[in-house]
Amino acid sequence: MSDGQLVDITRRGVLSFDEAYERVLILKRLTGRYVDSVERRMTQLESLLQNQMELIHIIENEINILIHEWHRKVRNLGGIPKGLWLVDFDAGFGQYCWKHPEPELAYWHTYNEGFESRKKITFENEIEIDHTNVIIVSHNL
Question: 59 FRET partner, CA 20 to 30 A, in 12, 37, 81, 91?
Protein backbone atom coordinates (compact mmCIF):
# COMPACT_ATOMS: atom_id res chain seq x y z
CA MET A 1 0.00 0.00 0.00
CA SER A 2 1.53 3.27 -1.03
CA ASP A 3 0.49 6.90 -0.73
CA GLY A 4 -2.69 6.24 1.25
CA GLN A 5 -4.22 3.78 -1.21
CA LEU A 6 -6.90 1.46 0.12
CA VAL A 7 -6.69 -2.27 -0.38
CA ASP A 8 -9.87 -4.05 -1.48
CA ILE A 9 -9.66 -7.13 0.69
CA THR A 10 -13.09 -8.42 -0.30
CA ARG A 11 -12.20 -9.42 -3.86
CA ARG A 12 -11.88 -13.18 -4.44
CA GLY A 13 -10.41 -15.30 -7.19
CA VAL A 14 -7.18 -14.69 -9.07
CA LEU A 15 -5.05 -11.99 -7.46
CA SER A 16 -2.21 -9.95 -8.89
CA PHE A 17 1.09 -10.12 -7.06
CA ASP A 18 0.49 -6.65 -5.60
CA GLU A 19 -2.95 -7.65 -4.27
CA ALA A 20 -1.58 -10.82 -2.68
CA TYR A 21 1.41 -8.92 -1.29
CA GLU A 22 -0.84 -6.36 0.43
CA ARG A 23 -2.95 -9.12 1.94
CA VAL A 24 0.13 -10.86 3.30
CA LEU A 25 1.06 -7.63 5.11
CA ILE A 26 -2.34 -7.81 6.83
CA LEU A 27 -2.04 -11.56 7.43
CA LYS A 28 1.40 -11.17 8.96
CA ARG A 29 0.05 -9.04 11.82
CA LEU A 30 -3.12 -11.10 12.17
CA THR A 31 -1.26 -14.42 12.16
CA GLY A 32 1.26 -13.18 14.70
CA ARG A 33 -1.56 -12.54 17.17
CA TYR A 34 -3.07 -16.00 16.59
CA VAL A 35 0.32 -17.71 16.88
CA ASP A 36 0.90 -15.98 20.24
CA SER A 37 -2.53 -17.02 21.54
CA VAL A 38 -2.15 -20.63 20.43
CA GLU A 39 1.39 -20.88 21.82
CA ARG A 40 0.24 -19.52 25.21
CA ARG A 41 -2.45 -22.19 25.37
CA MET A 42 -0.01 -24.90 24.26
CA THR A 43 2.29 -23.88 27.11
CA GLN A 44 -0.67 -24.18 29.49
CA LEU A 45 -1.43 -27.66 28.14
CA GLU A 46 2.14 -28.82 28.63
CA SER A 47 2.02 -27.82 32.30
CA LEU A 48 -1.13 -29.79 33.08
CA LEU A 49 -1.26 -33.23 34.63
CA GLN A 50 -3.04 -36.18 33.01
CA ASN A 51 -5.73 -36.13 35.73
CA GLN A 52 -6.79 -32.61 34.67
CA MET A 53 -8.67 -33.93 31.63
CA GLU A 54 -11.54 -31.44 31.84
CA LEU A 55 -9.14 -28.48 31.72
CA ILE A 56 -7.12 -30.18 28.98
CA HIS A 57 -10.28 -30.50 26.83
CA ILE A 58 -11.22 -26.87 27.46
CA ILE A 59 -7.80 -25.60 26.36
CA GLU A 60 -7.70 -27.95 23.34
CA ASN A 61 -11.11 -26.61 22.32
CA GLU A 62 -9.86 -23.00 22.67
CA ILE A 63 -6.90 -23.84 20.42
CA ASN A 64 -9.19 -25.39 17.80
CA ILE A 65 -11.49 -22.35 17.90
CA LEU A 66 -8.52 -20.00 17.40
CA ILE A 67 -7.25 -22.01 14.42
CA HIS A 68 -10.73 -22.12 12.83
CA GLU A 69 -11.08 -18.35 13.34
CA TRP A 70 -7.69 -17.83 11.66
CA HIS A 71 -8.76 -20.04 8.71
CA ARG A 72 -11.97 -18.02 8.32
CA LYS A 73 -10.09 -14.72 8.35
CA VAL A 74 -7.59 -16.03 5.79
CA ARG A 75 -10.48 -17.02 3.48
CA ASN A 76 -12.12 -13.61 4.05
CA LEU A 77 -8.90 -12.04 2.75
CA GLY A 78 -9.03 -14.21 -0.38
CA GLY A 79 -6.42 -16.68 0.82
CA ILE A 80 -6.52 -20.44 0.93
CA PRO A 81 -5.36 -21.87 4.27
CA LYS A 82 -3.16 -24.87 3.46
CA GLY A 83 -1.90 -25.77 6.90
CA LEU A 84 -1.09 -24.21 10.21
CA TRP A 85 0.03 -20.65 9.41
CA LEU A 86 0.44 -21.51 5.70
CA VAL A 87 -1.54 -19.61 3.04
CA ASP A 88 -1.84 -19.76 -0.74
CA PHE A 89 -3.34 -17.14 -3.06
CA ASP A 90 -4.56 -17.98 -6.57
CA ALA A 91 -2.23 -16.27 -9.06
CA GLY A 92 -3.92 -17.52 -12.23
CA PHE A 93 -0.92 -19.66 -13.22
CA GLY A 94 -0.33 -21.26 -9.82
CA GLN A 95 -0.37 -20.18 -6.20
CA TYR A 96 1.49 -17.45 -4.39
CA CYS A 97 2.62 -19.05 -1.12
CA TRP A 98 3.29 -17.49 2.31
CA LYS A 99 4.10 -19.14 5.65
CA HIS A 100 4.42 -17.45 9.02
CA PRO A 101 6.89 -15.98 10.05
CA GLU A 102 8.18 -15.06 6.58
CA PRO A 103 8.55 -11.27 6.35
CA GLU A 104 6.80 -10.92 2.97
CA LEU A 105 5.30 -12.75 0.02
CA ALA A 106 8.27 -14.22 -1.82
CA TYR A 107 7.30 -17.68 -3.16
CA TRP A 108 4.95 -19.42 -5.56
CA HIS A 109 4.21 -22.95 -6.76
CA THR A 110 2.14 -24.51 -9.53
CA TYR A 111 -1.40 -25.74 -8.90
CA ASN A 112 -0.19 -29.36 -8.88
CA GLU A 113 2.68 -28.73 -6.48
CA GLY A 114 2.74 -27.52 -2.92
CA PHE A 115 4.88 -25.98 -0.23
CA GLU A 116 7.74 -28.44 -0.75
CA SER A 117 8.10 -27.38 -4.42
CA ARG A 118 7.70 -23.66 -4.08
CA LYS A 119 10.04 -21.34 -5.92
CA LYS A 120 11.36 -17.85 -5.22
CA ILE A 121 9.47 -15.09 -7.05
CA THR A 122 11.69 -13.11 -9.42
CA PHE A 123 10.92 -9.72 -10.91
CA GLU A 124 11.57 -8.33 -14.36
CA ASN A 125 11.07 -4.82 -15.73
CA GLU A 126 8.47 -5.93 -18.27
CA ILE A 127 4.70 -5.77 -18.25
CA GLU A 128 3.92 -9.41 -18.92
CA ILE A 129 3.96 -12.78 -17.28
CA ASP A 130 6.17 -15.39 -18.90
CA HIS A 131 4.25 -18.62 -18.22
CA THR A 132 7.20 -20.85 -19.09
CA ASN A 133 9.48 -19.47 -16.37
CA VAL A 134 6.74 -17.68 -14.44
CA ILE A 135 8.20 -14.23 -14.03
CA ILE A 136 6.04 -12.03 -11.81
CA VAL A 137 5.91 -8.35 -12.65
CA SER A 138 5.16 -5.61 -10.18
CA HIS A 139 5.65 -1.88 -10.47
CA ASN A 140 4.24 -0.95 -7.05
CA LEU A 141 7.01 -2.31 -4.81
Answer: 81
